[in-house]
Specification:
Blueprint (H helix, E strand, L loop, with lengths): L2 H18 L2 H10 L13 H9 L4 H11 L7 H4 L12 E6 L5 H11 L4 E4 L1 H4 L6 H11 L2 E7 L6 H13 L2 E7 L13 E2 L5 H14 L4 H11 L4 H4 L3
Parallel strand pairs: 1-2, 1-3, 3-4, 4-5
Length: 241
């Protein structure tokens, strides 16, 4: 984040806190993010008080606070306000499929298999129109995604781009699924249990991905609504018990 954007964001958050809360409520809100009360503030302005408290807060925390308060992030507004081309007009749950170019066929196949479940995948090597700026389109997809799946094939951990995509998903707090296909997850997501491909087909993997998303509170409602909009009935609903 540029220095000027950081200053603007802190100003916006400060004004939002000023309009929403009393002093003690501001303290409680900031304490939730591990932010201490500012010291030696002589101004009686809640805006100034809040800005001083946020002055040295790290970027990731600032972005989380902005997301909770629904405060627009200056440098991100353009990218986050426009959906990528393949997600415009869809009510499906949106999942970003992270992969290396050498295995784009696997990503495309998984995307196809997820479709019948009301899950719309974004595969950079397939979904970006040649005339569009590819990096901006990827950024739009990362901001708009409801969930993220990483296909850990050989070489995935060495890709600068895939590691940035994982970091973006982790920072946003969306549901992340790791599909192990030759490599173990590394970094922040290594502590999470990976989904093993084993000898299963893409259809079988897609079925498990659907079950995982339906079981997670971050994605369950969106996916249920997507299925309802498309008239999709799960096998569980069809079988009486």
């Amino acid at each position: 984040m540029r220095a000027s954007d950081r200053i603007t964001l802190i100003d916006k958050i400060g004004r939002d806190l000023q309009s929403r809360f009393r002093y003690e409520e501001i303290d409680t809100f900031l304490a939730h993010y591990g932010i201490a009360k500012p010291r030696e503030i002589t101004s009686n302005s809640k805006w100034v008080y809040s800005k001083e408290a946020l002055r040295n807060v790290d970027e990731e925390t600032l972005l989380k606070i902005a997301e909770e308060l629904d405060v627009a992030v200056p440098s991100l507004t353009k990218a986050s306000s426009v959906l990528p081309r393949n997600w415009q007009g869809t009510t499906d749950l949106r999942i970003f499929i992270s992969h290396i170019s050498a295995h784009k066929d696997k990503a495309t196949r998984l995307k196809t298999c997820l479709g019948p479940y009301g899950i719309s995948g974004f595969v950079a090597h397939e979904d970006i129109i040649p005339t569009l700026e590819w990096q901006h389109e990827i950024e739009r997809a990362l901001y708009a995604m409801d969930a993220f799946i990483a296909i850990h094939t050989k070489g995935f951990s060495q890709s600068f781009w895939t590691q940035q995509e994982i970091g973006f998903a982790y920072g946003r707090g969306v549901k992340i699924i790791s599909l192990k296909m030759g490599e173990d997850p590394t970094g922040f997501i290594s502590k999470q249990q990976a989904l093993a491909r084993r000898d299963r087909s893409a259809d079988q993997v897609a079925e498990e991905v659907d079950a995982i998303l339906m079981a997670d509170e971050r994605t369950a409602m969106k996916l249920a609504n997507a299925k309802s909009a498309r008239g999709i009935v799960s096998l569980v609903d069809e079988i009486p018990f």
